[in-house]
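User: Before I run my own analysis I want an independent prediction to cross-check against. Here's the chain; please return only the structure tokens and, at the end, one sentence I can use as a sanity check.
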Amino acid sequence: MLYYLFNWLDKVTHIPGAGVFKYISFRTAMAGLLSLFLSMIIGKYIINILRKNQIGEDIRDLGLQGQLEKKGTPTMGGIIILFSILIPVLLFNKLDNIYIILMIITTAWLGLLGFLDDYIKVKKHDKAGLSAKAKLCGQALLGLCVALVLFFHPDVVIKEKCSKPDYVNTENVFKIENNPNEGTTGYECVNAEKSTKTTIPFFKNNELDYAVLLKWMGPDYEKWAWLIYIPIIIFIIMAVSNGANLTDGLDGLAISVTAIIGATLGVLAYVSGNTIFADYLNIMYIPNSGELMIFTGALVGACLGFMWWNCFPAQIFMGDTGSLALGGIVAVFAIIIRKELLIPILCGIYLAESVSVLLQRGYFKYTRKKYGEGKRLFRMAPLHHHYQRAGMHETKIVQRFVIIGLMLAVLTIVTLKLR
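Assistant: Structure tokens:
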């Protein structure tokens, strides 16, 4: 909204400084600062409201150090994160951008799904909350919506082979922040095209077209690409959303890891939305995707602000309201910028937590069927509880996971050149 207001003021009144809203870097910084302050300010009031209404976490005694001390801590703190993301996005983003519309829908939809789950747990005193089927159906419905929009919407296109003919003023790299005028910078791209291509890490000419998986269907296989594309998108959104949910088990763990992931995705969105960087890094150019960097500014700011209240000892938990939404945001964002195959690297913490649960359950069922008594691979799942049960303090676990998350983020960015 402010973008349109100041753009109008710049054109009509020529107020000095009004044109600064054209720059993605400025709007990203402002969105990040606003979301940070909002989450810190709103957090205090939300915590007080939740305490007055006795909306606290019901903790079971699982034999974990310091676990029972958290009983009664306010939950559903994801509300803080959601508002702190959406308000800056509505203020600083171009709201006619299809990618931003998708991100807003994702945030609101999964936030609502998580809120219903938390509400049932707290108010109905049902520890199970929403059934697993209901949550999966809600996530799958969002995945279907996202996949259909990305596949059929005319604004969702890519441009390949952006290159400079002879000479380009390299200062334009810093002057032109998004959708640079190709005639001014000297960069030329092939025409925009609809495509189901994505990026494969560690390979030169690193693009995979999902439609190729249907090549066996004959010469018209490309028109059936949606048969493979839509299920893949649904699976990714469900997997990452639930991975973030499983990671949310220690004070400050999920929120700090997500902040790192969000910042990294912002960098990837920026280079994907700039013809100069897209050419230099030999990656596909995605028109209008640079606008997503403002969303990541709001996301990272909201995460840092929530961490103010969620760091050890936590004064509030995000609950499924926050964790399901954050995981979905990460998944949809990565899909939009065609970097979803980097998720196993960038979201390695989410992946490890999810795999530990699957292995624990699978091995327990297998040994119970074979030996009559179930055995466990880990002391407890998800993975962070394994280390907690081993006697490691949760603050140390969180700090070490954050260090690993930073290493994975650096590796993710390095893949742009390491091929």
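Sanity check: Residues 166-185 have pLDDT under 50 and may be disordered.
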